[in-house]
Amino acid sequence: MAHAMASGQARRRRVQRPGAALGAAVGVLAVANVLNNTVARRYAPLTSAVATGALLLIARQAGSGARDLGFATPARGALIGGGLAAAVAAGYTAGVLLPPTRRLFLDERALALTRARLFEEALLQVPVGTVLLEEVAFRGVLPELFGYSLKPRAASVASNALFGLWHVLPALDMARANPAAARAGTPRLVAGTVATTTLVGLGFHELRRRGGLLAPALLHIATNSLGFLAARGARRMNARRLLKRSAR
What we know:
Radius of gyration: 20 Å
Largest sheet: none
């Protein structure tokens, strides 16, 4: 009887307060986005961890459980995500070893980092400061909250459209830091980034459907973190090639 009453109360919460929960979640993300991209970038892991906790609390209060948010099937998620992460590592390795594609990995923002900062980015900033919040928010909490009033496919599109908008500030930063990217024009760069990340988010959402949050999280970490290591590897390969030429 008590269990039935609790279930009824949870269902009533889902019907009565989905808009308030969704508004609160978007507000948390807006604050985290500004802090992580403009105000306190080095503190992104702390900001993202706090924001992730707040989002999970909001979803819990709205009636969502762990399984609803994607915290399920960890073994399947590890298998899918681990396999895709290995494929990313293989692709990056091949790209660095081949001279025609090696230059694509020479990202000056990564190469300007000290070794300590590089490992901080790869092992802390990316997994905790970026991936933790983005996967929980855009593949877990937001689809669930949108799902109270939208069909699953529409909920996925809505949450990943917000994921695209989430990248407006990083795109503006890229336009300032990368003259080559800025040649296309800042508005075009921002629009392209939003569109691309929306599509990527939809792909990640499909991985979440198949393997829980762990599957897209592992691919996301591999794509971002291994990029820092690939940049260093590309520079080292170029240095070796120059040494061989000078020794002839």
